[in-house]
């Protein structure tokens, strides 16, 4: 009886500690397609995966199929409109941390492509910005600063590049350590009370 109760307490405490952060990668693997002689790219209006979404108010997103010369080992997305803005947000509107994204120039042209990311809070105020210049170096992983922690959404302009493997995690309410301690003491008190009644 004591072992079962102790195991239950430990399991409850472990669940409470681990509830809080969901990490994942949007990798567009579900879009992979060999293509056909008449089709080499696909347009989509938005994309959602692992509880996050990519949307745009201007035009649509595209991705190369595997038979296209521009395909670079991945069904990465790019924006159809030059200067079109991409928005990344959680489907349920919760805050998240943006960790990294893979970027590459489109068409593998000898060109310099500046990309600037902007992070916004729940009130729509800009709280973060970070930029990179792509120079046809192939896929690179761009890591975000801690300023992109706890953002409501992130936007960036898509000129001359495509993106893949967006690494992020959703932040949920995590009990403070003092709350966990009070909870643990309360559970222990109930357990001892029950044990004393049985004796």
In short:
With 199 residues, the chain is an alpha+beta fold. 20% of the residues lie in helices and 38% in strands.
Describe the protein's architecture and organization:
There is one protein chain. This protein has 199 residues and is α+β, with helices and mostly antiparallel strands. Mean pLDDT is 81; it is low at 9-21. The chain folds into 2 domains: 1-19 and 174-199; 22-171, Jelly Rolls (Sandwich), CATH 2.60.120.1350. It has a 6-stranded antiparallel beta sheet, with no helix packed on it. A 4-stranded antiparallel beta sheet has the order 1-13-8-11, with no helix packed on it. It has a 3-stranded antiparallel beta sheet with strand order 2-5-6, with no helix packed on it. 20% of the residues lie in helices and 38% in strands. The protein has helices at 2-18, 177-198, and strands spanning 21-26, 41-44, 47-49, 52-55, 61-64, 78-79, 85-90, 96-105, 113-120, 126-134, 140-143, 153-157, 161-171. The chain has 2 helices and 13 strands. InterPro entries: Ice-binding_C. Residues 1-23 form the signal peptide. It comes from Thalassotalea marina. This is Ice-binding protein C-terminal domain-containing protein. Residues 173-194 form the Ice-binding protein C-terminal domain.
């Amino acid at each position: 009886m004591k072992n079962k109760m102790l195991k239950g307490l430990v399991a409850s405490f472990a669940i409470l500690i681990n509830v809080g952060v969901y990490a994942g990668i949007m990798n567009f693997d579900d879009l992979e397609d060999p293509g056909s002689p008449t089709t080499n790219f696909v347009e989509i209006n938005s994309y959602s995966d692992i509880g996050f979404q990519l949307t745009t108010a201007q035009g649509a997103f595209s991705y190369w199929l595997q038979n296209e010369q521009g395909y670079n080992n991945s069904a990465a997305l790019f924006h159809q409109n030059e200067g079109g803005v991409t928005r990344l947000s959680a489907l349920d509107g919760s805050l998240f941390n943006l960790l990294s994204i893979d970027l590459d120039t489109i068409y593998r042209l000898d060109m310099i492509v500046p990309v600037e990311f902007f992070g916004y809070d729940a009130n729509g105020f800009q709280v973060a910005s970070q930029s990179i210049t792509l120079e046809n170096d192939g896929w690179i992983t761009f890591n975000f600063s801690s300023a992109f922690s706890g953002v409501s959404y992130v936007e960036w302009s898509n000129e001359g590049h495509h993106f893949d493997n967006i690494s992020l995690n959703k932040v949920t309410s995590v009990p403070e350590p003092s709350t966990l301690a009070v909870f643990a003491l309360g559970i222990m008190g109930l357990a001892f009370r029950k044990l004393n009644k049985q004796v």
